[in-house]
Amino acid sequence: MDPLLKLLTSNASLAPADMAAMLGISETEVRNRLRELTAEQVILGYRAVLNEEKLGRELVRAVIEVKITPERGGGFDKLAERIAKYAEVRSCHLMSGGYDLLVEVEGSNLREVATFVSEKLSTIQGVLSTATHFVLRAYKEQGVLMKHEGAEDRLPVTP
Questions:
Q1: 98-135 burial, b for 16+ CB within 10 Å, e for fewer?
Q2: pTM, full prediction
Q3: Rounded to 10 degrees, what is the CA torsion of 55, 114, 66, 102?
Q4: CA 58 from centroid of its chain's CA atoms
Q5: Which CATH number fits domain 53-135: 3.30.70.920, 3.40.30.10, 3.30.505.50, 3.30.530.20?
Q6: Between residues 9 and 119, which one has the greater pLDDT?
Q7: Distance, CA of 7 to CA of 21 (rounded, Å)
């Protein structure tokens, strides 16, 4: 992996000057490379990983297994892209195995997520079935361990 991209994936908040020092190149080179990667759509955006529990936000997240019928001439892509455009959808992945798409959604309450599944997702032509699983707690998000009240920082040692 490109060393600059590796730095960004571990900490996207680093300043170009800091990245340049860590990589042993000039700040101008870093800025130019970032511009190139953005223009080539290798870098699509920057996001912070938030601990929703600490913010006190009452979000409901769910992962939904979706079985679909591929469309002639478009396969799974057209349907997956249509599903991915919904505001409630955080991510949408084509999968191998017992279902075709894994869709992660977010809502302000259970009813909002359930309504999305029953009125929007399951009514799309080509969607054969859905199985919804509600996320109860995140322990690791995008490679970052979540800190929970009362949780120990080290693994227990057993004889």
A1: ebbbbbebbbeeeeebeebbeeebeeeebbeebebeee
A2: 0.75
A3: 0
A4: 18
A5: 3.30.70.920
A6: 119
A7: 12
Intervals of CATH 1.10.10 along the chain:
3-39
Selected from 3.30.1760, 2.20.200, 1.10.890, 1.10.10, the CATH number assigned to the domain covering 3-39 reads 1.10.10
**69-120, pLDDT tens digit by residue?**
988 887 899 999 999 999 999 999 999 999 999 999 999 999 999 999 999 9
Q: Do residues 66 and 99 lie in contact, with contact meaning Cβ atoms separated by under 8 Å?
A: yes
pLDDT, one tens digit per residue, over 23-64 is: 999 999 999 999 999 999 998 888 777 777 767 777 899 999
DSSP lists the bridge partners of residue 92 as 103
Report the distance separating Cα 81 and Cα 40, nearest Å: 20
> Radius of gyration over alpha carbons of the chain, in Å?
20
Residues of the chain within CATH 3.30.70.920 domain(s) are 53-135
129-153: average pLDDT: 81
Q: Which of 135, 131, 86 is nearest to 110 (CA)?
A: 135
